[in-house]
Amino acid sequence: MDISLLESQTWKAINGQDETALQDLLILVAKHLKVTHIAVTKPIPPQVDGDDSQDNVVRSPSKFMPLYGAFGRETCESPPIQDDFNKAYWVTAKQNGVFQTWAPRWTMFSRGNISEKARILELPAVASAVAEGVEDGRGCTAVDLYAGIGYFVFSYLKAGVSKVLCWDLNPWSTEGLRRGADANKWRAVTHDGGSGIDHMATNDARLLIFNESNEHATARLETLRTHLPPVRHVNCGLLPTSRGSWTTAFAVLDPTAGGWVHVHENFELSEIVDRAEGVRKEFQRMHDTTDYPEHAEVVLEHINRVKTYAPGVFHVVLDIYIPPYLTATCV
């Protein structure tokens, strides 16, 4: 990686220098670290700049501050066009043997998720779905409803999942996702906004990318389901809560095979166990409203504490197993 990202507190400590001295310092820092670019990172603001009523749903790093090196255009078309992508500065990092690519001026990169990426790579439930898919010859599919630049998407692919379907609202994220897939030599196809999507699942692409709201995921899956391996894993990776995607996650899982939903949430330390059980009960309620004649238990298999999000608040991932609710003859 040829960029160094400084924490905002580090920047405050050196920002009192005059401009000439500061540039001389940055040149020395770049030379010492063997990087070509330096910037200041700050937390992704929850609201759009200048509008406290509008959520920053695309997780744009609007507080990003370039210090050294050319980071590309300061503005772009909305939505960005190919020329914007071509002239942006792109960075590639390697974690867990997987390349990830992003444009730091336009897209966030979360270093703190590295342990969760590694966990997905080795997760027994993922290995089980892959093995079952190999045994029955159908393969398996995963869905990431908040894909970003491929944080967890690429872990599923490296673990052997046949195909991953991805949703993200930020076109810079989906472009980074496409470039990252290319760097890892995984073929990707991006939905171009047209009405026909059957072709996306009938070729050898392992990554199907949708630059749109995941509210469309259920309808997309119903169109593509007969062309895809069964969906066995769904990732719901939005913080501080992914609640808005739970119904979709349940709906896109294969109803005859069942599978796992991985729910990302921020919980206070003292409430983790109780609130995790509350999430499990929500999925149990969904399962109980199906026409399946027998009661089947939704299981909270694991609570993974990823990192602290704020004092006393943890980013957790809940691994929830959803049993089948249709027999194969009903499909």
Overview of this protein structure:
This protein has 331 residues and is an alpha/beta fold. It folds into two domains: 3-109, no CATH class; 112-330, Rossmann fold (3-Layer(aba) Sandwich). Helix content is 32%, strand content 26%. The chain has eleven helices and 15 strands. The chain has helices at 8-14, 19-33, 82-87, 114-122, 124-136, 153-158, 171-183, 198-201, 217-224, 246-252, 272-288, and strands spanning 3-7, 37-41, 47-48, 51-55, 65-68, 91-95, 98-102, 141-144, 163-167, 188-190, 207-210, 231-236, 259-268, 299-310, 313-322. The strands form four sheets. It has an eight-stranded mixed sheet, with helices on both faces. Strands 1-2-5 form a three-stranded mixed sheet. Strand 14 and strand 15 form a beta hairpin. Helix 9 packs parallel to helix 10. The longest helix is centred in the C-terminal third of the chain and has 17 residues, at 272-288. The model has no long low-confidence stretch (mean pLDDT 89). Residues 29-324 form the SAM-dependent methyltransferase TRM5/TYW2-type domain. One of its GO terms (molecular function) is tRNA 4-demethylwyosine alpha-amino-alpha-carboxypropyltransferase activity.
Task: Write the SSE topology.
Elements: E1 3-7, H1 8-14, H2 19-33, E2 37-41, E3 47-48, E4 51-55, E5 65-68, H3 82-87, E6 91-95, E7 98-102, H4 114-122, H5 124-136, E8 141-144, H6 153-158, E9 163-167, H7 171-183, E10 188-190, H8 198-201, E11 207-210, H9 217-224, E12 231-236, H10 246-252, E13 259-268, H11 272-288, E14 299-310, E15 313-322
Parallel strand pairs: 1-2, 8-9, 8-12, 9-11, 10-11, 12-13
Antiparallel strand pairs: 2-5, 3-4, 6-7, 13-15, 14-15
Helix pairs in contact: 9-10
Protein name: tRNA(Phe) (4-demethylwyosine(37)-C(7)) aminocarboxypropyltransferase
Domain SAM-dependent methyltransferase TRM5/TYW2-type: 29-324
Organism: Cryoendolithus antarcticus
